[in-house]
Amino acid sequence: MTSAGRLRGLKPTIVLIAAVLALTGCGVANGSSPAGVPHVSASLVVYVGRNEEHVRPIIEAFEAETGVTVDALYGSTGELATTILQEGEASPADVFFAQDPVYIGALVDVGLLASLPNDIITRVPEGISGPNNEWVGVTARRRVMVYNPNRMSETNLPQSIYELTGPAWNGRVGIAPTHSSFVSFVASMIATEGESSTRDWLTSIAANSPVLFDGNHEIVEAVAAGDLDVGLVNHYYALQMAAERGSIDVSNHSFQPGDPGDVLMPTTIGMLESSAHQGVALDFIRFVLRDSSQKHFLENVKEYPLVQGVGTPQGERPLDVELIRNMRLTEVGNNLTLATSLIAQAGLI
Amino acid sequence: MTDHRRSFSSRVRKQLRPPPLVAIFAGIIAIALCLPPLVVLVAESATAGITTDIPPARLVELLGGTLQLIIIVTASTVLLGTTTALLVTRTDMPGRRVLSLLVMIPLALPAYVLAIALVGMGGGGGLVTQFTTAIGFGPAPVAQGLWAAVVCLTLSNLPIVHALVVTALNRLDPALEESARLLGDSPTRVFFRVIVPQLRTPLATAACIVSLYTLSDFGAVSVLRYDSFTRAVYSQFRGGVDLAPAFALSGVLISMAMALIVLQAVLRGRPMPVASIARPPLTLRLSVTGRVAAGAVLWAVVLTSLVAPIATLATWSVRGIVSGVQPGPILAETATTLQFALAAAAVTTLLAIPIALSSYRGTSRIGCFAETLPWITHSLPHLAIGLGYLVVSIALPSVFYQSSGMLILVYAAIFLPVAVGAQQLALRQIDPRLLEVSRTLGHGVWSTSLRVGVALVWRAAMTGALLVAVLVSQELPATLLLRPTGTETLAIRVWGAIPEGQLTTGSIAAILLVALAVPLVAAHHRATLQVRPT
Lengths: 349, 534
Fold this sequence. Notes:
Chain A is of the alpha/beta class. Helices cover 42% and strands 16% of the residues of chain A.
């Protein structure tokens, strides 16, 4: 073995010995555990429950401007919320950037998030924040139904999600039932329509042979390729695809105003109460709400910026703040467990 | 492997007992590393009970779907693998050695890589569709559901069965077949009356390995959207914020795996008789038609399991790069994958040494325990094991949680038996007289172990380390659950690309993953498996 090889072997051995001691419960006295040692370097840990491609440019711009190193953990919002709940006070995360108000609401419920200062909250319209300002909205996305305009005309599409349970749509609707955007939509439906209507709708949808996917993008690709008729997703996929490929194989169809399928959902960001870098964490949140960052979400992601005056995605109706408030933002977090359990009970797992 | 144990152990047993310290150390490693997730899983699924919200009808459906997949994949893989093995060992097919190697290469392709290639072929946007529509047929079917999962898992398990049967066929004593032929039996009769009964043990082993793999598979069924139990476990983990339902389902998954493990232990049976003198077996002279048919089967396997997937992934990658798709920090992810693979291979190999030393003779109880425990952890679905380690890592001091060190230890725990197996094989082949000589020359136990043992086991340990490195680079579920903050690997990228609709990025990552593995698997293939020349 070369000396370099020996050195490489040494480090894991130390870790191993520590692990053996810790796992067998001998040697290390409780008080001497390294758990209490705070991180001192100027670095920030951000859990990102959003598409990595859309958020990485913002994180890189923040790093370049401040010199702060950001460790980002990308994953699905639900997965990361679960992770933070498991980690509790010991979470290495400083900031949680989520896809929706529901999963972050579950963190609010157990008191893991700190209240954000007023200068941050007032960047967005009133009411798009946690009950005690534990999170703030960043952008908004509308729930729509995608279809392939080359294969069907919009006039034949339903006005309400309740129509999707009929025989005309048997085996034709794609959904991503365990994706956080669908779970949030169900939580919002519980808030506006009540538990029993939501349960009935889910059960009827499940009985109507839906095509189950893991993610929204997958649904949109299937519709574009002609492998699937319609799917319930967010509004920006079709806009992104039109911008990237120039071709229009997928269009958005909106359900009529007032229908539970016509929702505008905010993406959210919050800071962990346990964060040891609260100053930097708040700076990061301010950075995300800056006009330049909001413009990135508008132009590259095609989402609605929540900061006023930045603009509206091309072809979309102007931001309707009432539509967001209709979700009953302070309640939806409480509906998370109910929503996931209704989805599972309907057999959509 | 067991046959070596019989022939050497009786002689070695009397020589050189390793100090009990080694066995104790081996026991500690096995307990500390491999027991915690099992305890967590048993405890959590016992407390969770049936706290899942999934209605019983759906559970039955998922269970039925998983069993259906296991049965079809196992049957088709064993049938196809036996066929390819017979064709390359027992016929005079031209080019059979090359073909055997080509059949083995897909070992470097994990099931989810094959799955993403299948996705890239079928459906309205797929490469096969472009071809079929050009010649006037409709679009190729979308690669999803049962048939896609069966094709994918059969092709990805095929090399394992092929290798096992080729090895077994090469070890058969040709004298039995020759006698049957001399007594006037036709080749067909010889095959069914003489060869098949001797293949019972390797075929049973192969069937058990394939069924366990199919039960455990998470990546391919996710990508191909087949409703299996592992996918439901992950859906429960991903959708909800409570781990209890995921553990409840894991309990079922673990029970099924345990049943298969017990089945394997029962079916493993006694070792086969081995040819005392290495001698080429009888080969069947194929007619022209026979050669064409045999060639068609082998080339079809190579085409579908190797050429078509690689061509699809390459096409999607090139297309994406040409059209300016940003594949993300894929080079950094390649480096991360390689670092984890090499670090885990080194740690696993080191930790395997005491276990191999204390267990290769099968005489020490602690050694036997230290060998069996990691094997159980290794055989259970890694998604369930990963959930167990997730809970363990949260309970440990916070330096362990989401740390590279923890992930490497988990890899070591999961893949210990691979390294142990390679080392044991070499240890059993050590001529005890060498050790005797060393002792009589005045060297102590430790000095002898170092001077003779290390020198002789070194190569085998490196071969084991190579295999561990490949398996680690391709490991998905545990990596998904336990990876450190900000760390993405190629496996995660491939798996995550599909729900994001990024077939291009997924294909590039898949190609890189295969590129990492091919040289390692090829080296391993050369070291362990040879089709005999005739």
